[in-house]
Specification:
- Helix content is 30%, strand content 15%.
- It contains nine helices and ten strands.
- It has helices spanning 19-27, 47-60, 70-73, 85-99, 139-149, 155-158, 167-184, 224-227, 259-265, and strands spanning 8-11, 36-39, 63-66, 110-111, 118-122, 190-194, 232-235, 242-246, 249-253, 273-276.
- The chain has a six-stranded mixed sheet with strand order 4-5-6-7-9-8, with no helix packed on it.
- Helix 2 links the parallel strand 2 (36-39) and strand 3.
- The protein is globular.
- The structure holds fe (ii) ion (FE2) (2 copies).
- One fe (ii) ion is lined by residues 42, 69-71, 196, 237.
Length: 284
């Protein structure tokens, strides 16, 4: 039965380049004409798959808000678009604009439906290896151990930081720009912050392979949920769908994940997570 009122929904890690996940993307539909959808990165690797998925969703949902994951930023050999790093990101932003999809480069749209008004801030902040464990280990040592353990993120081979000399420097620039945008936001209007990587390291403690944490975020954002007090923080990347609370702020990991993962665990929260109205508000 169709809903009368819209919801602010979220999903990430659609990985639409995989046939079984493509079918999942094809099944994603709003329940109300006014539903919005946050897509928090890892839509696909090839730019044509990213375009296919975002076009489909933009046609169905009243508004789609996207922020990149590491997979969109890869430059796979089989992609006709061979742009790297920042140029690839800018290409994807333009692609989104053609589709009417909101990006981290646009003004924050305001959700006026149930649970609103709340501004939705898609953020793109990357990672800088500071979530490595133990933290006292150098980045070099930490990477060496990851190679020894065979737990190396494919980003090392396919995600290029051009024109920045390193991912850390690209990350630092993204964090500075994002922090400026968030600080400029009128604090009288609540925020939902949505990025691909978790803002703080705590969620990475649930990773099956702790070596992977170094590719999962930056300590530079670890206090943003306290400083900006968002209504909720949406993220993905870990492929561990769940809800956790940090300093009283709700964090929603909204990954769909790979077929081998969802075949094992199912979709414990459904395919699309309701962000607003918050379930605790009793208006769902
Ligand atoms: Fe992913
Ligand atoms: Fe990811």
């Amino acid at each position: 039965m169709a809903r009368a009122h819209g919801r602010l929904l979220a999903a990430s890690d659609l990985h639409a380049g995989m046939a079984d996940n493509r079918r999942i993307v094809e099944s994603l539909r709003p329940e109300a004409a006014a539903d919005w959808l946050i897509v928090a990165g890892d839509v696909a690797e090839r730019s044509d798959d990213v375009a296919w998925a975002l076009r489909l969703l933009a046609e169905r949902f009243e508004r789609v808000i996207w922020t990149p994951g590491n997979h969109e930023l890869w430059t796979p050999r089989e992609d006709p678009v061979q742009l790297r790093g920042e140029a690839r990101y800018r290409f994807l932003v333009e692609l989104c604009r053609d589709l009417g999809v909101v990006t981290p480069e646009d003004p924050f749209p305001t959700w006026q439906g149930p649970g609103g008004p709340v501004a939705v801030a898609p953020i793109f902040t990357l990672y800088d290896y500071t979530f490595r464990r133990p933290r006292s280990m150098s980045k070099k040592q930490s990477l060496e151990l990851a190679y020894e353990a065979g737990v190396v993120c494919t980003d090392e081979f396919l995600l290029h930081p051009d024109p920045y000399p390193s991912i850390e420097e690209w990350c630092s620039a993204r964090v500075a720009e994002t922090e400026r945008r968030l600080a400029e936001h009128d604090p009288a209007v609540s925020l939902v912050v949505a990025g691909h990587w978790p803002l703080l390291p705590d969620p990475t403690k649930a990773l099956w392979r702790p070596q992977f944490a170094q590719w999962c975020g930056t300590e530079l954002t670890a206090r943003w949920h306290v400083r900006f007090r968002p209504e909720a923080v949406v993220y993905g990347h870990l492929h561990i769908p769940r809800t956790t609370w940090h300093d009283g702020v709700r964090f929603e990991e909204v990954s769909i994940g790979y077929p081998r993962e969802w075949r094992r665990r199912g979709h414990p929260f459904g395919l699309l997570r309701q962000i607003l109205p918050s379930a605790g508000a009793g208006a769902a």
